[in-house]
């Protein structure tokens, strides 16, 4: 958002990290002060996630679960955790396989109620 402001990025303004990280400064930037413009990034990220889901070689039931995860937890959580796992239908359950043990354990402890591990 700072980069969208010609005032904050101009030569006449001396931007410092300590100033930019103050809660009052962050709030003012979020309120679009200093000539800051609102930047739409959510739609782009969500479109990327949807494209990712559509191109996977998984059962339609798995893709439906992924779309629900995206809607429920948002683009960042989906990208960080769910885009890197494999889903499959086992009987009447959806289970997952992560790329490493840390990821497997984290997803199981935080999202295990959604599906089981394979």
What are the main properties of this structure?
about 120 residues, mainly alpha, three-stranded mixed β-sheet, about 10% strand, elongated
Protein architecture, described:
The radius of gyration is 20 Å and the shape is elongated. The chain has helices at residues 17-20, 23-30, 42-55, 60-82, 101-111, and strands spanning 86-90, 93-97, 116-117. By secondary structure, it is mainly alpha-helical. The chain starts with 16 loop residues before the first helix and ends with a strand. The protein contains 5 helices and 3 strands; from the N terminus they run ααααββαβ. The longest helix is centred in the middle third of the chain and has 23 residues, at 60-82. A hairpin with a 2-residue loop joins β1 and β2 (93-97). The chain has a 3-stranded mixed beta sheet, with helices on one face.
Topology:
Elements: H1 17-20, H2 23-30, H3 42-55, H4 60-82, E1 86-90, E2 93-97, H5 101-111, E3 116-117
Parallel strand pairs: 2-3
Antiparallel strand pairs: 1-2
Helix pairs in contact: 3-4
Report strand order across the widest sheet: 1-2-3
Number of helices: 5
C-alpha end-to-end distance? 42 Å
The low-pLDDT segments are none
Q: What pattern of helices and strands is seen along the backbone?
A: HHHHEEHE
Question: Which word captures the global form?
Answer: elongated
Mean pLDDT: 87
Reported for the largest beta sheet, the result is:
3 strands, mixed
């Amino acid at each position: 958002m700072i980069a969208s402001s010609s005032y904050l990025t101009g030569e006449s303004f001396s931007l410092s990290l300590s100033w930019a990280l103050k809660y009052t400064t962050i709030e003012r930037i979020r309120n679009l002060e200093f000539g800051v413009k609102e930047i739409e990034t959510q739609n782009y990220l969500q479109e990327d996630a949807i494209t990712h889901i559509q191109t996977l070689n998984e059962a339609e039931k798995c893709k439906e679960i992924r779309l629900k995860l995206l809607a429920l937890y948002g683009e960042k959580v989906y990208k960080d955790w769910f885009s890197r796992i494999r889903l499959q239908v086992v009987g009447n359950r959806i289970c997952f396989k992560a790329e490493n043990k840390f990821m497997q354990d984290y997803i199981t402890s935080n999202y295990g109620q959604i599906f089981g591990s394979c």
